[in-house]
């Protein structure tokens, strides 16, 4: 297991993901006058953590994993769920502090949806480019949120945590990404 995690660069990705969130938290704690982090900072912190963790979705030799006698679907699903748990634990641990990244519903929705989208992208274009679409889509959605129903579907990341259309889109992306990545893995490289 240790060798598998090191081959996927998990320790480095976890350190970078947690470290970047801790840096943003510390800067908010020091520089901001308000206790609750603004919505834009929360959403961008989530997408930053997910982008860093996306590098762990492929091994150096995916073909070797595909030919191994081990059953990979449940391992891949567990890998995504562990990444989701890491993002949730780190960001929800800030709630009792003087710099809160919440609400919890927003963190859960966006982390699950963005990890699912990243996993879908990893299955289609490979793990090296899996973070492009989630990051680009989230930045545009966070800067230009929409209030209509169709706009809420298109900018689900930047909707309030009570938005049902945003929750539906995030849930569909989370489930589709989990299943696709679990059964197909990362796209093969040429």
Summarize this structure briefly.
By secondary structure, the chain is mainly alpha-helical. It has nine helices and no strands.
How would you describe this structure to a colleague?
The protein has 190 residues and is mostly helical. The chain contains nine helices and no strands. It has helices spanning 2-7, 10-31, 39-53, 62-67, 73-92, 104-125, 132-143, 149-154, 164-184. α3 (39-53) runs antiparallel to α5 (73-92), α5 (73-92) runs antiparallel to α9 and α6 runs parallel beside α9 (164-184). The longest helix has 22 residues, at 10-31. It is globular.
Features:
190 residues; mainly alpha; single chain; 68% helix
Structural topology:
Blueprint: H1 2-7, H2 10-31, H3 39-53, H4 62-67, H5 73-92, H6 104-125, H7 132-143, H8 149-154, H9 164-184
Helix pairs in contact: 2-3, 2-5, 3-5, 3-6, 3-7, 5-6, 5-9, 6-9
């Amino acid at each position: 297991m240790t060798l598998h995690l090191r081959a996927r660069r998990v320790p480095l990705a976890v350190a970078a993901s947690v470290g970047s969130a801790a840096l943003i938290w510390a800067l908010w704690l020091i520089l901001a006058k308000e206790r609750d982090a603004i919505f834009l900072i929360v959403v961008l912190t989530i997408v930053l953590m997910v982008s860093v963790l996306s590098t762990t979705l492929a091994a150096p030799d995916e073909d070797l994993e595909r030919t191994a006698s081990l059953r990979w679907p449940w391992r891949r699903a567990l890998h995504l769920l562990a990444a989701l748990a890491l993002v949730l634990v780190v960001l929800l641990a800030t709630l009792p502090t003087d710099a809160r990244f919440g609400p919890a519903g927003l963190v859960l929705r966006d982390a699950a949806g963005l990890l699912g989208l990243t996993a879908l992208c990893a299955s289609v274009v490979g793990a090296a480019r899996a973070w492009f679409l989630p990051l680009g889509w989230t930045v545009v959605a966070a800067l230009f949120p929409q209030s209509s129903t169709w706009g809420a579907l298109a900018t689900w990341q930047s909707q309030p945590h009570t938005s049902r259309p945003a929750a539906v889109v995030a849930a569909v992306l989370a489930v589709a990404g989990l299943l696709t990545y679990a059964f197909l893995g990362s796209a093969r490289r040429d």
